[in-house]
Specification:
Rossmann fold, about 280 residues, three-stranded antiparallel beta sheet, 10 helices, 10 strands, seven-stranded mixed beta sheet
């Protein structure tokens, strides 16, 4: 079978649908990238054109199943432990101690952290390790972490919490031995004590109100997620983060992401080598 091109009309139909449904942005310069990421599903379903794939995704009775199968092909879900260590050091050395000082008078001894776009769990489990390694966080203090993602298969892997060598390329050997057990050759399983600190939920960050139902969060990590969104979808996602954060709460984005193009009340905070954001204390 001859490999079909992604025609101009097909590209427009599919890219506009992906933007409306999931906030994913494939501009004209990414037309060939989109074609290559759609191609495995076109072949698997036996379609002769991308238009057939589009109508299947839009109208077929089993469209939801196919959408969830397709989504991992459209974004790069590669992750690993202790990504962007400068932010993690700021979390450990500045943010967590400041939160403890702020919460002390209230009597609340639980710090809540959200990992938005958590993929297969490396980020929220990294945050759990950072919290465990922060000596100031001794009982009665505890940290509760929630990971949310659109992809149910990624969430299943996160709950399974078993990882290969590639996920450990930035993790200190001592920490791997402390928090993981050998599950198979070149496979490690997270220990139950750390797994118990994290829970997972499915959420689409570009659906207005996606964060409703979450308890108020003190810190949100949303890293290397917004790079796939257009400005309108970024606005929706950031509004959801703003609404779920407590006044004075912290937001960490990926190093290539910023809030400069969208209206927001988040204020930037500059730490040596790192920029993050805070929700104003006045709401």
């Amino acid at each position: 079978m001859t490999r079909p091109e992604l025609t101009e009309s097909e590209f427009r139909l599919i890219s506009e649908w992906l933007s409306e449904e999931y906030g994913l942005c494939f501009g004209p310069a990414k037309r060939e990238i989109l074609r290559s990421r759609l191609e495995p599903r076109r072949v698997a379903l036996g379609f002769e054109s991308f238009e057939q794939l589009y109508f299947h995704l839009k109208f077929h009775p089993e469209r939801e199943r196919e959408r969830l199968t397709l989504l991992p092909h459209l974004t790069n879900n590669e992750s690993y432990f202790f990504r962007e260590t400068g932010q993690l050091e700021a979390l450990r050395d500045e943010v967590l101690p400041e939160l403890m000082r702020t919460l002390e008078p209230s009597g609340r001894r639980e710090i809540r952290i959200l990992s938005a776009g958590c993929a297969s769990g490396e980020e929220p489990y990294t945050l759990a390790m950072v919290a465990r390694e922060a000596r100031a966080l001794s009982p009665p203090w505890k940290v509760r972490i929630t990971g949310v993602d659109l992809d149910p298969e990624a969430l299943e892997r996160a709950i399974r919490a078993e990882y290969g060598l590639n996920a450990f390329r930035r993790l200190d050997e001592k920490l791997r031995k402390r928090y993981f057990d050998v599950a198979a050759p070149d496979r490690w399983a997270l220990k139950p004590a750390l797994r118990s600190m994290v829970e997972f939920e499915q959420a689409n960050l570009v659906n207005p109100g996606w964060s409703k139902g979450l308890p108020p969060q003190d810190i949100v990590f949303c890293r290397n997620v917004l790079i796939y969104f257009d400005d309108a979808s970024i606005t929706v996602a950031i509004q959801g983060i703003y609404e779920c954060l407590v006044p004075g709460g912290y937001l960490f984005l990926g190093h290539a992401e910023s809030l400069s193009r969208i209206p927001t009340r988040f204020a930037p905070v500059r730490h040596p080598g790192v920029i993050f954001y805070r929700r104003p204390h006045d709401g």
